[in-house]
Amino acid sequence: MTNSLGSYVHEQMGLLGWSREVLVERSGLDRCELEVLFESPVLMGWPTPEAMLGLARALNVSVREIVMHAAHGCGLHVEVEADPQVAMHRVANEDLMREVRRRLVLGAATGGYLATPGSYSGADTGAQFG
What we know:
Layout lengths: L3 H13 L3 H8 L3 H9 L9 H11 L3 H11 L10 H27 L20
């Protein structure tokens, strides 16, 4: 059983029709680094930034993709999104909700937020969009 990064790199090599020698040549990694990558069920240490960058360049994938698989290979729980747009949307929504909560807490602390339905006079109702 191989770790997540090793499995991912092996899968990419299969798609490209590459041998380990080709990957060594194109990535700049040495054979020992690749042995550890392919043979370890769990990565015992974090790959060097140079190794991750070399793999990303050689395989023509994002460094993020390599880092996410390396994290999973080290035993960290990560959610690898199939669609980066979904991940960005989720992050944007989480950031937005965090800001809304922060402002509500700030308003509650200062008494400056809308507390009752009757206090909406002059508030933007969205009517301009309807």
